[in-house]
Design brief:
The protein is α/β, with parallel strands linked by helices and 362 residues long. 38% of the residues lie in helices and 23% in strands. Helix 3 packs across helix 4, helix 4 packs across helix 5 and helix 11 crosses helix 12.
Length: 362
């Protein structure tokens, strides 16, 4: 039997049915990322597995035990499953080490000395050994989440469940948590990760579940799901999360635009250089080419769509200039810094439609 075996799982609330007839098996050592639109039962699926939610019907077998059986000893099953939530759930009045020690002492009966040694070991594993005697309020959001991961690991679980572990973090804190999860994925630990971080799902998973409309709509390798999705629904979702659109006007808020683009690049598969190039190209295109014309024509706007590419292939930009009186990208028109930078970064492709300029990364 697989480590996790789910049969005809259904979860219904009075106002919604997030899970309907879900059946799937997960073997020991698999790393499964769960993606899909918001509100499609991804978090409910995880919470049913460790019985934080009670299924309406169906069976969930974990390590040979049916957790839906009313006679099952749930605390003993939960010892095998570590769970990391969106929020960190740390006790603010206790030191970091004490937060990690408490579950060991209360659930495993470990002595205080042994629990402390384990806490320090796991803190070192997530790069926070020096924070053992700090309090949660002294930590950043990313550090708090890493402590929460260390706390789960200290229980030596067979399975780790991550419920959108980066969604509550500022963008500049996300990478430290993703790095820890990526390293864990290499250890052979069975992991289920609900995430909107497509780069994480692509990079660490052995399988990806695309969930929609109450079930696992598609189940495959990262290559299949992201590069060769079988269903139109999956294709539409992947296309949507890998595209970013912005309408540029003469009174644009550049800080808002660049913050949105930075977040989009972070969620995608771009390498660091491709991400930096994308942001630089967008900034120079808007400030050097579009704004001068838009300020002369305050009633006009330009729509830019950026499509993320695979890895270092980077991105492409589609710029709809049909509202403008002229083609602002004519070769040789700009010999300033913006023009030089863009010519080094981007290559203009043949127009598929008049007035829509398409550029790809050099």
């Amino acid at each position: 039997m697989s480590l996790i075996e789910i049969k005809n799982l259904r979860k219904a609330y009075p106002e919604a049915v997030p899970l309907e007839n879900v059946s799937v098996s997960i073997d020991a050592g698999e790393v499964v990322s769960i993606i899909g639109p918001s509100g499609t039962g991804k978090s409910t699926f995880l919470r049913c597995i460790n019985r934080l939610e009670t299924p309406t019907s169906g069976e969930i077998w974990v390590d040979g035990v049916n957790v839906c059986d009313p006679n099952t000893d749930l605390p003993s099953i939960r010892k095998k499953m570590g769970m990391v939530f969106q929020s960190f759930n740390l006790f603010p009045h206790k030191m970091v080490a004490e937060n990690i020690m408490m579950p060991q002492q209360q659930l495993l009966g470990v002595s205080r000395a042994d629990a402390y040694r384990e806490a320090v070991t796991q803190l070192a594993r997530v790069g926070l050994e020096s924070k053992a005697r700090a309090y949660p309020d002294e930590l950043s959001g990313g550090q708090k989440q890493r402590v929460a991961i260390a706390r789960a690991l200290a229980m030596h679980p067979k399975i780790m469940l991550f419920d959108e572990p980066t969604s509550a973090l500022d963008p500049n804190m996300v990478s430290e948590v993703l790095s820890v999860i990526t390293n864990l994925a290499k250890t052979g630990l069975t992991m289920l990760i609900v995430t909107h971080e497509m780069r994480l799902a692509k990079g660490v998973s052995s399988r990806v579940f695309f969930m929609d409309q109450g079930g696992i709509h598609e189940d495959g390798t990262p290559d299949q799901i992201f590069e060769h999705p079988q269903s139109e629904r999956t294709r539409n979702f992947i296309c949507r999360v890998r595209s970013w659109e912005y309408t540029v006007t003469g009174d644009i808020d550049l800080y808002e635009m660049m913050a949105g683009l930075e977040n989009f690049c972070r969620l995608q598969f771009m390498g660091k250089k491709a991400s930096n190039d994308c942001q630089l190209a967008m900034e120079e295109m808007v400030t050097g080419y579009l704004l001068p014309v838009l300020k002369e024509n305050p009633d006009k706007s330009v729509v830019i769509q950026i499509d993320a590419g695979e890895g270092e292939k980077g991105f492409s930009l589609s710029v709809d200039t049909r509202a403008l009186p002229r083609d602002v990208f004519l070769a040789g028109e700009h010999d300033d810094v913006s023009g030089i930078l863009l010519r080094n970064l981007l290559k203009r492709m043949p127009d598929k439609e008049p007035g829509i300029a398409v550029f790809t990364r050099q």
